[in-house]
Hints:
Distance between the termini: 11 Å
Helix content: 40-55%
Radius of gyration: 15 Å
Strand order of the largest sheet: 2-1-3-4
Shape: globular
CATH class: Alpha Beta
Number of domains: 1
Structural class: alpha/beta
CATH topology: Rossmann fold
Largest sheet: 4 strands, parallel
Order of helices and strands: EHEHEHEHH
Amino acid sequence: MSDFEPIVVAFCCHYCAYGAADLAGSMRLEYPTNIRIIRLPCTGKITPVFLLRAFERGADGVYVAGCLEGDCHFIHGNLVAKPRVNYTKKLIQEVGLEPERLEMFNMSAAMGPRFAEVAREFVERIKTLGPSPLNKTYRVQSDAA
């Protein structure tokens, strides 16, 4: 399983986390290429359905990245997102996935190095956990080998 490269979906708010990702790129900071960024207007728009669908469609890990607590451009969007992420962690645990496959992070648009650090650390966490049992693509490939 040493060649396992996880697929990680990052739901990022437009104003802060997506800005931090853009800054990381502008600064030419390296982070894993297996991060798939989905830009949201605000993390307050995230729902358990979005998070579960990412796993259903093959993600090995998912994280939500939003504004710093208390600094949301939509006042309390990130405070709404956090309990939704925690609720979804309980749901995925009930179906047999490790809750560590889902996380929420807060950062400002000026935190490009933090975005890259989170991406690297989260991908390493998912590599340790191995492929998601829901990832049919990987199971088919690994069964054929």
